[in-house]
Amino acid sequence: MVVDGWLDRLAARRPHVLLAITPGATAARLATEDALVDVGAVVTASPADADVLVVVGYPGEEMADAIGDVWRQLPGPRVRTQVVDPAAAGAAIRAAVAGLSGGGQRAEALRRHDEWRTGADHRNDGDPDESPGHRGHAEHGGHGESMPMPGGLMMAERADDRDGLKLDVLEVTLGPVLADWPAGLVVTAAVQGDVVRKVDARVVGAESTAVPSFWDGADGRRRAAAHLDSLARLLAVVGWPAMAQRVRVVRDAALGAGPVSDVRSRLAVVDRRLRRSRTLRWATDGLGVLTPQMARRLDVTGPAARAADDGGDVTARWRCWLTDADAVLAGRDPGPAVGPRGRGRGDRTASAALLDAACRLMVGLDLAAARIVLASFDPDPDEIAVAVPRRVED
Amino acid sequence: MRLVAFLALSLAAVGAGIAVFVVDSMARATVALAASFVAVGAVILLLDAPYLGVITILMMLMEMAVMVVFMIMYMMNPAGLMPMSMVHNKRGARAISIGMFGLLAAGVVMTPWPQRRGRVPADPTHALGEAIMGSKMLVMIAVSAVLFATIVSALVLATGRGRYDPPEPAAPTGEAGS
Amino acid sequence: MSYPVWTVPVAAVVLMSFTATAAVLDAVLDSARRGGGWRERVGRPVWEAARLLRQRRRTTVAPDALLWRLGTSGPLVVALLMAVVIPLGGRAVTDPVVGVVWFNAFDVALWLLWWCAGWGANSVYGLVGGYRFVAQALAYELPLMFALTAPAVAAGSLRLSEVVAAQDRVWFVVWAPVAFLVFLLAVTGFSVWGPLSYPAGWDVAAGVLAEPSGVDRLLLLTGRYALLAAGAGMATALFLGGGAGPLLPGWLWSGLKILAVLAVLVAMRRRLPILRADRVMKRAWLVLLPLTLVQLLVVSVLTYGGS
After folding, report:
1. Rounded CA separation A82/A59 (Å)
2. CA–CA distance, C60 with A270 (Å, rounded to integer)
3. Rounded Cα–Cα distance for residues A276 and B128 (Å)
4. Is B174 at the interface with chain A, CB within 8 A?
5. Residue A133 CA to chain centroid, in angstroms?
6. C191 touches chain B (CB under 8 A)
7. Residue C50 belongs to what domain range?
8. Which of A65, A132, B87, C62 has the smallest number of Cβ neighbours within 10 A?
9. Residue C8: which of C86, C73, C110 has the closest Cα?
10. Chain C window 93-112: which residues touch A at a Cβ cutoff of 8 Å?
11. Do A150 and B164 touch (CB under 8 A)?
12. Is pLDDT above 80 for B55?
């Protein structure tokens, strides 16, 4: 028991945290990220590696189900907490980390009856959410010829491949709980081998969708921070965590109260590093090209539309974020916009158009490339979730 | 000592070989086959032919790893662990394999094995190279480079478009129908 | 020259200390967001290990447990097997006539092992990660083989002690800088590290690392650092003259060089984004491979041209 207590203390110095972020909870997310740094915690990508599950915001029913699935996959010792009020994030995280040690964990472990322990429990078919890391089994609306597999999983079906072969199709559900992923977004991708053949996307709503997006408004610093937030997510998905971290630091500086000149000089350093990186360009050049015609047809506005005139690939989009972030910090307005992602046209919000464009461009790409394309548009689910009230305003 | 090692390794090789047909998943069959080959490679090491032994292990492991790429093409369920039989055409396969085994075993028994002459050289790898290649060494080295370059350039020419390049709109007929 | 059999555990301890050093280096190089000097990060590997020892070993629904365990424990075993031929100060546990091929054979074994680590979990992300490793291996393995051939050709031997001895005047890194760089890149490749950690990509929830937990994860992560350490040891023997150096004893020179290479390998993680197979495959086959072949030609001409 002495050894246990000793291990507990050591382990608690670096808890791994999985974030389940609901749409409309951006302020709470930023506060949570900040609080995690204070306790020395690190954000992780998969439930198997997580000690703490933090639900950010109020999840709606469907999202809550998905979070329940993810929760059951945490190996334990595990703690679950919720952050709704940004001001309460620090206390919630500290309490969660404290809860990781102690006798309660042992008692909880004895009570658990998880699917992965019993083995052959059957999952409900038609269960729309797939938690990250869990086999996305094919759903079989109307095909009916599939046979059940061990563990109640379903067999994949075949379809024509682009190379003239007949390959199995696997339905992979990405989100809603996934690291560096738009909050509450669920993308169902039909994958053949390594190539994405079909994409369906929707936003799993939060409990309340009446709040306007955190990033909207006339404040230039906040708009710059929005671009940097997107950029950090893109860099994390590209696989450059150290750089993503640096961009997040600049983002936090932009949201903070320090002098603008300081933020701009920090941004300039990051800007130079990124534009000079040849390997980053290998990862993003020529990927997900949005032509100006396509941008107009899909009502894409904001930085993504401006990037379309400059090549329109992922590289052009992240460069445009950098340029725009610096411009708004300097007090210039790079283009007419309601929010950082553009104005939207008619009854479509800017992010709805971005999501549409991203889904079209993801088809035919490798899974990694598809994720990078989506991250390079970075639709803000907060905007999509409030689509209905916004239509009234317009 | 050598005899014990030889017996253990040959039993392992044969056992893993049988496992290939007994297990019910392609992945396990692949790994069992790899294990069998590794045991055979280790037997070759016992013959004081270290280069041949290690290179056998290397090549066979690599081949089995390449097999997993083919696996995803032939699997009924690419991501699945669906139990499936590893045996097809049982009667024919049995006849062929028993015949083959008989042939090889007869070869082993009937070959007049030479007695060892001389001693193990200090560098068996070098001696092996001399024995196989002899005076043709330089030619073979040059030819192997040419062969390798041919393979690479043939691949480059054969795949005008990579797996991830967008389909060329100009020549849609290039795609073979299913 | 070899040490007796009882030195095998000693070699394991030496490898594990380099492994721990790699983990500490990684923690120290991590860019902290605020406060927290290196002092606060240096103990991180201990905390992480404690965490994983405490964590329950979670499985998934219907995994292939046998292959999964093989895959999660395999990398560490391979690193240990590589370590027995790596000379430290001119002597290794064993010095087979085909030391270079020995190393090569075990790095090929990693193809199957990493794939099993991804496959066994019966999870989409793990599976994608496992296949990514095979794709990536197809890109780095042939350049690696030619990079390994360069010092062997220059020394005229596959025995590591002779390769080291042949560098008494000029280190092979001088004649074969391309082979050296390709070798380092390939080490990050089979260790699933930094720019070649594509099989454990963040975009697929850490791929091969998505599902293992508890002790399994500890073994796999330790194996990853151990592979980096073994790779650094091999790079020192093949290209940096092993234990050669003035004043200090040979084993100390070997250790210092290994540490330097290890530091470079660990630091690479923060300098570069991931090189995805779908983007770099072409470059690997059309640029890297011919480059290593030319390098081999240069080394051959330099070695045998005079004679």
Report:
1. 10
2. 41
3. 51
4. no
5. 15
6. no
7. 5-304
8. B87
9. C86
10. none
11. no
12. yes
Which pLDDT tens digits describe chain A residue by residue (394 residues)? 566 677 888 888 888 999 999 888 888 999 999 899 888 888 999 999 999 999 998 888 888 888 988 998 888 788 999 998 889 898 999 898 888 887 677 777 777 776 666 544 433 333 333 344 343 333 333 333 344 455 555 556 667 766 666 677 778 888 788 889 998 888 888 887 778 888 888 888 765 555 677 887 667 888 889 999 999 999 999 999 889 989 999 998 988 888 888 999 999 999 999 999 988 998 888 888 888 888 888 888 888 888 888 888 899 999 999 998 888 888 777 666 667 877 777 677 788 888 888 888 888 888 888 999 999 999 888 877 654 433 333 3
Structural domain tally of chain C? 1
Q: Which residue has the higher pLDDT, B133 or C80?
A: C80
DSSP A230-266: HHHHHHHHHT-HHHHHHHHHHHHHHHSSS-HHHHHHH
Contact C195, A279 (CB under 8 A): yes
- Cβ contact A121:A152 at 8 Å: yes
**CA distance, residue C210 to nearest chain A CA (Å):** 6
* C98 shares contact with chain B (CB less than 8 Å): yes
pTM greater than 0.95 (yes/no): no
- CA nearest to C62, candidates C120, C130, C124, C1: C120
DSSP H stretches of helix in B111-136:
124-133
Please tell me which of the candidates A160, A170, A365 has its beta carbon nearest to residue B164: A365
Question: Cis before residue A389, ω within 30 degrees of 0?
Answer: no
**What fold characterizes domain A2-111?**
Rossmann fold (3.40.50)
- A124 in contact with chain C, both atoms CB, cutoff 8 A: no
Tokens of C176: 């074969």
SS3 A311: coil
The per-residue b/e assignment along C238-277, b for 16 or more CB within 10 angstroms, e otherwise, is bbbbbbbeeeeebbebbbebbbebbeebbebbbebbbbbb
ipTM of predicted assembly, 2 dp: 0.88
As a whole number of angstroms, the distance between CA A263 and CA A279 comes to 26
Is B80 in Cβ contact with A153 (below 8 Å)?
yes
Helix runs in chain B, H state only: 2-22, 26-46, 50-74, 90-110, 124-133, 137-158
Q: Give the C-alpha separation, C246 to C235, whole Å.
A: 20
Pick from C18, C9, C69, C6: nearest CA to C255: C18
Residue C68 vs residues B90, B171, C114, C180: alpha-carbon distances, Å: 30, 44, 9, 33
Chain C neighbors of B138, CB-CB under 8 A = none
pLDDT digits (tens, 9 = 90+) for C127-160: 889 888 998 998 899 899 999 999 998 888 888 8
Tokens read off for A220: 């230039």
Give A64: exposed, middle or buried? Use CB within 10 Å, 0-12, 13-18, 19+.
middle
Instruction: Output the six-digit token pair for B100.
Output: 């083959």
What fold characterizes domain A220-393? Answer: Cytochrome-c3 Hydrogenase; chain B (1.10.645)
Domain residue ranges of chain A, discontinuous segments joined by + = 2-111, 220-393
Query: In this complex, do A282 and C51 lie within 8 Å of one another by their Cβ atoms?
Result: no
- Chain A: nearest CA to B80, how far in angstroms? 7
